[in-house]
Amino acid sequence: MDKKILLIALIMGAIAIMLGAFGAHGLKKVLTVDQLNTFEVGVRYQIYHALFLLFVANNAIVTSKEKGIVLYLVVIGITLFSGSIYLLSTASLTALKTKLIGPLTPIGGLLLIASWLYVFYCVFAKK
């Protein structure tokens, strides 16, 4: 499980860096400052959670089963949170219907919060 989490964290981090560079260089000319700032929020949270997964993968206090739960919470959370932010901030460039995408952001955020609180619980509950 540790290797799987580590690999996902590394890919998630690499993608966040690529998207950050794309936002800073490729989208700078076609998005407003507010849209770019919003896009950067998605990138920032994605990189934070890639680092969080690195921490979880390398922590002996959290069991393999608990790490698996954290992994799913983070991957689904980042997909919904950052993914929806990427789509919403670039909606002026696409024909996407943002009414359906908007509600995904807070759901993803709740899953990310749940992942941190779950790790807190796992560590706190240990003797």
TrEMBL record:
Bilayer-spanning residue ranges: 5-25, 45-62, 69-88, 100-124
This protein's name: DUF423 domain-containing protein
Pfam families noted in UniProt: DUF423
Family the entry assigns: Belongs to the UPF0382 family.
Coiled-coil segments on the chain, per record: none
Topology in membrane: Multi-pass membrane protein
The organism's place on the tree of life at top rank: Bacteria
Keywords: Membrane, Transmembrane, Transmembrane helix
PANTHER family: TRANSMEMBRANE PROTEIN 256
Keyword Cell wall biogenesis/degradation: no
Chief place of localization: membrane
GO CC terms in record: plasma membrane
Compartments where found: Membrane
Keyword Coiled coil carried by entry: no
